[in-house]
Design goal:
273 residues, alpha/beta, 6-stranded mixed beta sheet, 5-stranded parallel beta sheet, 11 strands
């Protein structure tokens, strides 16, 4: 459910500590804020919020002013709450706090406990814990309803420069939730690492997911690795990694469901061979 569907509460009926001028300076806090806040609570979102390649709520985000995470532009908006990530610009965070502006930094969420904790935290910060609880209940129900392939299918997610995403990344979490074993695993690979294409070929994975949502970042030499001819001889899928893969939030379950369905097709094709 998006924020546009919530009924705004009159100012006189709102708790005194309910933030009414919320600025989000991070793409993933954008997503949860748009889903949980009253429309009138948000005064600005990060400049990534309107990028269809990165933001699942890009159309909704077009209704709001954008910011580039600079202290000067945020402070003049007179926010009573700034939502940031633990990796957000520390100079901006320090300056905002010096100005007496409340800043809440939410850690990245990749595992299910982290994702659930972030939803709960966001609901509390915005003054809408019941909405967050409803979102969590829906999240758990959707996750439980996903039909996965039987165990044994192996997959890898490969990005620019041949970087493989390990089990402690969001990409790795999506693979696991969809019923795949991650090829990129083992000592030192919790968060991934460069995966030589030769090793990938020798590993014989059932699926290689190539590329991802780059937004408007253009192309680079690093991305050209993804066009290497050797990938044509692997069970490669392009276009799967869309905006739903960007943040640990309910939208990612759509990516999990699609990937699980693809896994069942791969499983059926192997049986028929």
């Amino acid at each position: 459910m998006t924020a546009a569907l919530w009924v705004a509460v009159p100012a006189w009926a709102q708790p005194a500590d309910l933030p009414m001028r919320v600025v989000s300076m991070n793409l993933c806090t954008d997503q949860l804020a748009l889903a949980l806040a009253d429309p009138g609570q948000i005064v600005s979102l990060s400049h990534f919020a309107t990028d269809p390649g990165m933001s699942v709520h890009w159309k909704q985000a077009e209704e709001y002013p954008l910011n580039y995470g600079r202290a000067e532009e945020i402070s003049i908006l007179r926010p009573d709450l700034v939502l940031a990530d633990t990796w957000s610009n520390p100079d901006t965070i320090r300056m905002l706090k010096t100005l007496g502006i409340r800043v809440e930094q939410l850690p990245p969420s990749t595992s299910l406990p982290e994702i659930r904790a972030r939803i709960t935290k966001m609901g509390a910060l915005l003054g809408h814990p019941k909405r967050a609880a409803k979102m969590l209940a829906d999240f758990n129900a959707r996750l439980a309803a996903i039909k996965r392939p039987a165990k044994g299918l192996r997959a890898a997610v490969i990005g620019p420069s041949g970087y493989g995403y390990g089990p402690r990344t969001l990409e790795g979490q999506i693979l696991a939730l969809a019923g795949f074993d991650n090829v990129v695993s083992g000592p030192g690979l919790d968060f991934g690492g460069r995966l030589p294409l030769e090793d990938l070929v020798m590993d014989h994975p059932d699926l290689v997911i190539v590329g991802g949502s780059q937004g408007s970042m253009g192309t680079s030499r690093a991305q050209s690795v993804l066009d290497h001819p050797v990938l044509r001889d692997l069970p490669t899928q392009r276009g799967l990694r869309d905006a739903r893969w960007t943040c640990g939030a309910p939208a990612m379950l759509g990516a999990v469901a699609d990937l699980a369905a693809l896994g069942r097709k791969i499983e059926q094709s192997k049986v028929s061979q």
